[in-house]
Amino acid sequence: MSFDGNTKHPKSRRILVIDDDTDSMEILLEPLRWEGYDARGVTTEAEAHKLIESWIPHVVILDWMAPSMAGLRVLKAVRERLAHVSCVFVSENSSTEAIIEALDSGADDYIVKPFVPLELLARIRTQLRIRDLHEQLLYANEKLKELVDTDDLTGLYNMRSLYQRLDFEMERARRFNRDVCVVMMDMDYFKTVNDGHDHLFGSYVLSEVGKIIRACTRNIDIPARYGGDEFLMVLTETNHEGAMHFCERLRQNIEKTTFRNGPDSIKLTASLGFAITIPGENLSARELVRRADHALYEAKRGGRNQVAFHKQELGKVVELKASAQNRKKAAG
Length: 332
Prior knowledge:
Blueprint: E1 14-18, H1 22-34, E2 38-42, H2 45-55, E3 59-62, H3 70-81, E4 86-91, H4 96-104, E5 109-112, H5 117-149, H6 159-176, E6 180-187, H7 191-196, H8 199-216, E7 222-227, E8 230-236, H9 240-255, E9 258-261, E10 264-267, E11 270-276, H10 285-301, E12 307-311, E13 316-319, H11 324-331
Parallel strand pairs: 1-2, 1-3, 3-4, 4-5, 11-12
Antiparallel strand pairs: 6-8, 6-11, 7-8, 9-10, 12-13
């Protein structure tokens, strides 16, 4: 996405002219079309509102539209609905009071008729530059928020933003009687990666695990790095069967991956535990994470490289995968 105003084609700039006098409207439209802008004109307040709603112009040029002063009403309506659209008054009324009222009502500029077409175009370019700068600022703020919310190494969410998102999903689940699942995952014997290689290779492995997690999760899920070599995933609208399938697929994808970077390579496994909300239960986000963490502990205690889940009715965690000895062997 580019924000360089000089590279945007004039045809991509939508400019709406509102004037109850057809001749005056055409005088305004002519230089705009010379410049190559996508310029359209209307003569009534109703037409203006309809086109603003459907077309969403970048710049609106308007007059008082006496005696009803519809231009001022249109200006206020634009400001209420589309705060970032530039509004320029072009009017024969050159009184200080009129100029002040228009600017105080939200106009970005005021041009007195008769005007010089080249000056009009220069002022329009100024408004478009301001708009572009505003878009750049919004884009920069979005990128900064991404940096604050995501883990630099894996590109997944970090814990700073996770609980806020999880709280929202649990509230939504309660409202619509849906399930929310939290999955905790820990890489098995990850210490051997740093001991047998170096920390740079360890960082590479974690970044690759992040890619595997992103490939397994949906757009509506929330994958996060919990810390170190632990990961947490929030699966929305997922029942027990779906959570089991997700965890096994993720576990198998990690198990069959050879992490290779330069001369270093290693095969690893992961243990997973998950917990799902129970309809009607008033459960906090942290308690749901705690249950998933307990399930993860049981998976690791049972031999690693396996999946376990929290089973509420028995008040304990039940393993999904039997034969702990086989898992120990697979985990090395």
